[in-house]
Write a structure and sequence with these properties.
By secondary structure, the protein is α+β, with helices and mostly antiparallel strands. It has a single domain, classed as Alpha-Beta Complex (Spore Coat Polysaccharide Biosynthesis Protein SpsA, Chain A). Helices cover 37% and strands 21% of the residues. The chain has eight helices and eleven strands. The strands form four sheets. Strands 5, 6, 9, 10 and 11 form a five-stranded mixed β-sheet that branches. The chain has a two-stranded antiparallel ribbon with strand order 1-2. It is globular and about 50 Å long.
Length: 227
């Protein structure tokens, strides 16, 4: 996104991306608590943002903010450690996916509660894909019918997610070798990851154009709710 505040604190329809993301999670039918993992230097700001949000307050969901670590994996592990000990189903969500529909959140939770130990939402790939070698030359076409885009929230049996993070830490992998998501860590244990349908609206805000698209979706949702 270039210079400026972290993506999660950029304004989207007048409110921070993070606030939209927390609202999406808090709307989940079985969600009772949201743990936000924030940079240590931003804890006070993030807590103030969320404590002042009337939509989150009206949901009845408890929101806590804890300090993150030096890497994505360490931050997720710190977030999971802050979850109450009696919680057995944990979702991991990207704050940069502010518009994830509640239907996706509920589908992930339902799959875990039905017995799956790891669940990810997926969407199909619509673009043509080419593999490129290290030398920059196009190596050939990739069959997109076999490919899917992975989204969040990803859902896990808590014990499995914790085991995956302990194993990763014990192996002392370098950050450059880190998995890009938690499902990848679980797969390294030999555990099958179950898929549920994702949503095109659950895209990750990465570029300035993504903010414009997100603004348009929010405007459409507001028109529909007012109709």
């Amino acid at each position: 996104m270039g210079a400026g505040p972290p993506k999660a604190l950029l304004l989207l329809a007048g409110e921070p991306v993070l606030v939209h993301a927390v609202r999406s999670m808090a709307a989940g039918r079985d969600v009772t608590r949201v743990i936000v993992v924030a940079p240590p230097e931003s804890l006070r700001e993030v807590r103030a943002l969320l404590s002042e949000d009337s939509v989150v307050a009206a949901s009845g969901v408890v929101v806590d903010v804890v300090a993150g670590g030096r890497s994505r994996q360490e931050s997720v592990a710190l977030g999971v450690a802050a979850v109450a000990s009696d919680v057995t189903c944990v979702l991991v969500h990207d704050a940069a996916r502010p518009l994830t529909p509640v239907s996706v959140v509920d589908a992930v939770v339902d799959a875990v509660l039905a017995g799956a130990t790891a669940v990810v939402p997926l969407v199909t790939v619509t673009d043509s894909i080419r593999a490129v070698g290290f030398d920059g030359e196009v190596a050939g076409a990739v069959d997109r019918s076999l490919l899917r885009v992975v989204q969040t929230p990803q859902g896990f049996a808590r014990s499995v997610l914790e085991q995956a993070h302990r194993t990763f830490e014990a192996e002392s992998r370098k950050e450059s070798e880190a998995a890009t998501d938690d499902a990848s860590l679980v797969e390294r244990l030999g555990i099958t990851v179950v898929a549920v349908p994702g949503s095109e609206e659950a895209f990750k805000v990465t570029r300035p154009l993504d903010l414009e698209l997100a603004e348009a979706i929010i405007a459409r949702r507001r028109r529909e709710s007012d109709a």
